[in-house]
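From the pipeline queue, job 12 of 40. The input is one protein chain; the requested action is below.

Action: predict structure.
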Amino acid sequence: MRPGSRVGGRVPGAPGMLGVLVLAAVFAVFAVLQLANVTGRDTPDTRNYLSYALSLTGESKRAAATATIDYVCASRAERARRDQSVHVVRFHRPDPTGEVLAECRKQEWAAVRPRLAAGQTGGHTVPYMSERFMAIFEARPGYPAFLVPFVLAFGVTWGLWTAGVVIAGAGGVLVFLILRTLSVPVPLALAGQALYYVLPCGATAMRPMTEGLLMALTLAAVWGCALVLRAGRNRAGLAVVAGSLIALFTVKHSQALFLGLCLAAAGGAIALRRYRRRRRRLRGRGGPASRDVLALAAVGLAGAVATLLLARLLHYPSEADSLQDLLTDHFNRPDREHPWPEFWQLQGNFWVEWLRRQAWQPLFAAALAAGAWGALRRGGAVGGFLVAAAGTGILTQAGHPDINIWGERLIVLAWLLPVVGVPLLLAPAVRGGRVPLPAQGQPDRAGAVG
């Protein structure tokens, strides 16, 4: 029986009762820790997604604007209070909460009220900026729709917090399922779950923005690959990959495009390498495992093509719009006449500076290297698809070469590589140096990509 195969109706990789308890305990500890920061997690994008969600609940534009501005300003005031309490000069001064709240509300309404009065009330988002910029968020209904039940049940503040806990928790559970499907021992699979929570993945997933949902859906796609290649669950695995790409389109269609292309490229490269090796050794005989890899590549390619076609059909903002948004400070300056030469110049400058900063603090680079080593050496073909999925973080960052974007959130998907790859790298040591192979089925389902 292959490791991770379905037994008695159980989901491949599913833990036993003790494993479930520990899995829940790790998640519970993470959730309790998040109570330390119920507010103060918002980013500039939060107000767009929150106002979209409130609009879906039936709120008017003005009511949605009021609730969103109150949330954003309360968070800003909370951060100001905390910062002052530990400031070596100003810690003894009066509480700044009231002053910061008033100033914040004044600034936010100064941006929104004239646009509402001018009739900029189309779509679902509150008009914090120009219609051209807000169109980018109008094309991302998935995350606001996900927020709706939480906001209705718990209100804005606790609803966003609870949604963040659910999204982050789901990402950690998916890491566990991927590792168990790859026959990684339960302790290391739990360690992978914990890594997801303590590395930047967990903190970013808790932010009220799309990145947490993007990571969870990307991990679901990787799990689908593992179900196909390791558990023999072809239909279920392909359905999970396809469903993840469909959901990603609703959350952020550029991520669906990147993931589809990366899965297709990884599948093609793995199949080609296997074909060449098999041709040398077995005179061209193919096998089911190669067909499985090509099936995953086909699903990825179909997802990428469908994304391009649907985006054009729905008149979503194009790559040209994204480029102008980047180079004009969110359309606050005139469009650039020759954006592509400027973009490529900025691209080169960005990566030189990025590499310099990584050399200064090489934790991320070292983690990526260890994760890639573990994925490709111990993860077999699934490891190749994992590398491809994590590579979407690099592509997303390359699409926005702005060194000042908050918290390196665009590249956060690349952290999925060490989260899954490092436990894979350590698995032989936990097993006492023995790496079990399937007792039946195709041997290259457990073999290395190379």
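Job complete. The longest helix spans residues 142-181.
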